[in-house]
Every structure is written in structure tokens, then in C-alpha cells.
Amino acid sequence: MIAVPESGSAANGLAPALSMRGLSVRGLSKEFGGRIVLQDFDLDVAPGEVVALLGANGSGKSTALKCIVGIERPDSGRILLEGADLTALTDRALIDARMRTAMVFQQIHLVRRRTALQNVCSGGLGRLSLGRSFIWAAFPRTLREEAMACLDRVGLADRAHNRVAALSGGQQQRVALARALCQRAAVLLADEPVSALDPAAAEQVMALMVDLARTEGLAVAAVLHQPELARRHADRLVGLRDGRIDFAGRSADIGAEQVDGLYLAPAARSVAHHDQKRIPA
Ligand SMILES: Nc1ncnc2c1ncn2[C@@H]1O[C@H](COP(=O)(O)OP(=O)(O)OP(=O)(O)O)[C@@H](O)[C@H]1O
Known about the structure:
Elements: E1 23-32, E2 35-45, E3 50-54, H1 61-69, E4 76-81, E5 84-85, H2 91-98, E6 101-105, H3 116-122, H4 130-133, H5 141-153, H6 169-182, E7 187-191, H7 199-216, E8 219-223, H8 227-233, E9 236-241, E10 244-250, H9 256-261, H10 266-278
């Protein structure tokens, strides 16, 4: 069992220095067509820790995750994964480093006509030679055993041979988490992983992500649209507004009104701010 790190000692909730473990991001910026959508974005996620990214639609949350995982190319900034600077790596070293990051999405990216086990095996494809990678039926026994253990870890060993299409949304998301385990990822980036799930399934998947962080030492960063769920499950919260960090800190230290403020329109925000100032302490 990995202890929850005492991060967030600095005033802004970030670790004081770039970490050699887990994920550290500094000064990430990205613009599309001349419009800045992410600016000076910093993030630290230690092994065993869960950090939730919150913010209104269009505030830059997904762009941040996409830049970290390599789907988008940041205009500037540094991304350190287990101490390796991804922005300085090339070729095989970059591919190997990227393999240590897994991503799960709201729209679950699994091959629906394949079994849960085959999908989880695919997480280990990067470790196979190219020739074998595309033969679904020919995953080596060792990989199948590892994938089975990963499915067992998420409570789905009994559904290993079911096609993904026959599983519920919550079960599919658990298969996606098992695939991340089989990939042997050190960092898990989750983009609205529970938005398509009913409340009970969402609760279950969030609890599983926290459990995997604690027991497997995964560093988890999750974009969430459910502030209450984030507050209950995440160790720290990072609030984004218009591409910039509005607040960052331990979940217990961040007030509900601060979180709610992320979702107010600018005019309502200035009224709320004015009202807040009038309330005697
Ligand atoms: N490939 C792209 N090309 C142009 N603009 C983009 C692209 N991707 C994102 N954007 C813009 O960047 C801004 C931030 O988008 P992003 O998806 O990161 O926001 P978000 O906070 O994840 O929003 P949501 O909660 O709706 O998913 C938005 O205005 C979006 O339209």
C-alpha cells in the first residue's frame, strides 16, 4: 500500500520542486488559431495520488491532458514523467516513456467486438515485437496471464471472455482501467471517465481509480464534471478558468464556493465576488 504523499505544502498546492517520480508539468501553454486555450499550466501528481481537474466547458482541461499524453503538441512548457523530460526525448526513448502514460476517456476506447481479455492484452502490445502485435488470437501466454490478473484486479475476471459490447458502461470503464494496468502505466490520465455512467457506477469507478492509485502506485489525474465526486475522491483539486489555473490545493482546503465559481458566467462571478466581500467574516 502506497501512502498518500504529503503534497501541496506550497501555497499553490504544487510540490515545491520538479518531481523525479510520477508526473510534473510546468508552464504548459497551447493556442489554437492564435487563441490561447491553455496558459502556464502546472501540475504535479505523485505516485499513489489522485488529482482532479475541474472547470467549465472550454476551460482547457482536455487540452492539458492531451498535451501531456502527446495527442496535442504544446507550444511551450515541460512535461516530466518519472523524471524524464518528454519534451527533450525523441524516437524510441519517447515512445517508451509515453507507454508509461495511459489514458481513459468518457467515450470508452475499446474494441467492442473483441473480448475483455483481448482488449486488456492490447495494453501490453507495446512490449511485443511488431509482427505479433496485430494478431489478436496470438497474444503470448504470459501476456494473457498478466491481462487476466489485471481483470481480476478490477473485479472482472469472470467476464474475461465476454465481448466488450456485452458489458455495461461501468464494466467497460473497468476494462479500460485493467488495460492501463496491463500497459504497466505509471500515470493514468482520465478525461471525464465517469460522465457517461449512472451515479452508482460512477462512484464505483472513482473508488476503483483511487484504490489503483494507492495500491499500484499509479499517479492519477482525472478531468471531472462532478465537483462533489471530485471533492470526495481526489486528494487535490486543480480549478481551470479560461485556460489558466484558478486554484490548486488539497480537496479539504478548497471551499465549495470556490469550486462553484468556476462554473459561473463572468457577470454572475463579479456579483458573487461583490456579495462575498460584503459578508462580514
Ligand atoms: N483541435 C482544436 N482546434 C481548435 N480549437 C480547439 C481544439 N481543441 C480544443 N480547442 C478549443 O480549446 C478550448 C479548450 O478546449 P478543451 O477541450 O481543452 O476544454 P475542456 O475544458 O476540456 O472542455 P469540456 O469540459 O467541454 O470538455 C475550447 O475553446 C476548444 O474549442
